[in-house]
């Protein structure tokens, strides 16, 4: 049940054929958990602010309701980019959507005149359901620009930053191929693009050492790799080896001149990055389930204090309830979007809310004679605060099945 008129932060929006927002999503708008002083996201956010220091402006909050022009076009996303699909993004209607990343505000913030800035916000993406995915999460965007006249000081600053990074504490593997498959923009000379990239890498390496460097045994392993974003070139991703796994930290690169042009900035150049806060907070605070960031249970928030990274002590884990849901997909009609796994996940989220812990496609086959497709999903429910009753889970699953039948004309398989 998509909402037919949406009231989001006190404003009414009329739905249309693109609308795919349900109550379970719109209810997150305005919660602003990242502004609660003892929330882990807020603690991490402040820690990053303090690394960059007072020369960086912390840009005040902006509404998550943006236009596709802000979220995509202003950043040179091509018209057929997969991120624009209704299966991946939340649309209020054809005119408005929920931002999928903090980059949606790059042009705006550059146009406001900020040269060094950090901006944190809630972002919205349709995705799978498990302990590390939530359709609403937080990103921080950071950027720094240099004017033509400031560029001369950049090489010296980089040399300084280089000496400050202790090579005993950090092991950097730089696999980037700037200038080759990761092109420098035609308007930049090679020295400039390289110096900006070096400054970005040094600034972020310093941050990573501050966040992860306290684990002890041996230097922190950091890996820089090539990436692609329509709004940076060259582009990079960085990963950190932490608690036995490579963890994706952020996307970044040299800001596209097209972005700066839209902000009315002609003779400046610089870098930008966008990092996801939840994944980092989960490992630093040892938070086992991403849903906990949205809980109002005092036993969660009570555990944390501003300025301190402390391990979460799980309160008792209640037993899960697992149900399988099998159905035949309708025959696909030409011009009609086929059923997407995210459609299933959104229905489950809408009906089960924060009681759903995990959804997996466990079987997917085509009937040998008719060619019709069948899907079987395993849904795991669990409450973070009490024992979930069987009857309650049964009602939720029945409701999910009914919704699937009415919205997607699927045929239940018992
Ligand atoms: N917005 C990008 C994302 O969400 C990250 C990014 C930000 C990349 C800034 C480059 C520059 O994946």
UniProtKB/TrEMBL annotation:
<dbReference type="Pfam" id="PF03147">
    <property type="entry name" value="FDX-ACB"/>
</dbReference>
<dbReference type="GO" id="GO:0005524">
    <property type="term" value="F:ATP binding"/>
</dbReference>
<comment type="similarity">
    <text>Belongs to the class-II aminoacyl-tRNA synthetase family.</text>
</comment>
<dbReference type="InterPro" id="IPR004530">
    <property type="entry name" value="Phe-tRNA-synth_IIc_mito"/>
</dbReference>
<dbReference type="GO" id="GO:0004826">
    <property type="term" value="F:phenylalanine-tRNA ligase activity"/>
</dbReference>
<dbReference type="InterPro" id="IPR002319">
    <property type="entry name" value="Phenylalanyl-tRNA_Synthase"/>
</dbReference>
<keyword id="KW-0547">Nucleotide-binding</keyword>
<dbReference type="InterPro" id="IPR045864">
    <property type="entry name" value="aa-tRNA-synth_II/BPL/LPL"/>
</dbReference>
<dbReference type="GO" id="GO:0000049">
    <property type="term" value="F:tRNA binding"/>
</dbReference>
<keyword id="KW-0648">Protein biosynthesis</keyword>
<comment type="function">
    <text>Is responsible for the charging of tRNA(Phe) with phenylalanine in mitochondrial translation.</text>
</comment>
<dbReference type="GO" id="GO:0005759">
    <property type="term" value="C:mitochondrial matrix"/>
</dbReference>
<keyword id="KW-0067">ATP-binding</keyword>
<dbReference type="InterPro" id="IPR036690">
    <property type="entry name" value="Fdx_antiC-bd_sf"/>
</dbReference>
<dbReference type="InterPro" id="IPR006195">
    <property type="entry name" value="aa-tRNA-synth_II"/>
</dbReference>
<dbReference type="GO" id="GO:0006432">
    <property type="term" value="P:phenylalanyl-tRNA aminoacylation"/>
</dbReference>
<keyword id="KW-0436">Ligase</keyword>
<keyword id="KW-0809">Transit peptide</keyword>
<dbReference type="InterPro" id="IPR005121">
    <property type="entry name" value="Fdx_antiC-bd"/>
</dbReference>
<keyword id="KW-0496">Mitochondrion</keyword>
<keyword id="KW-0030">Aminoacyl-tRNA synthetase</keyword>
<feature type="domain" description="Aminoacyl-transfer RNA synthetases class-II family profile">
    <location>
        <begin position="121"/>
        <end position="314"/>
    </location>
</feature>
<protein>
    <recommendedName>
        <fullName>Phenylalanine--tRNA ligase, mitochondrial</fullName>
        <ecNumber>6.1.1.20</ecNumber>
    </recommendedName>
</protein>
<dbReference type="Pfam" id="PF01409">
    <property type="entry name" value="tRNA-synt_2d"/>
</dbReference>
<feature type="domain" description="FDX-ACB">
    <location>
        <begin position="316"/>
        <end position="413"/>
    </location>
</feature>
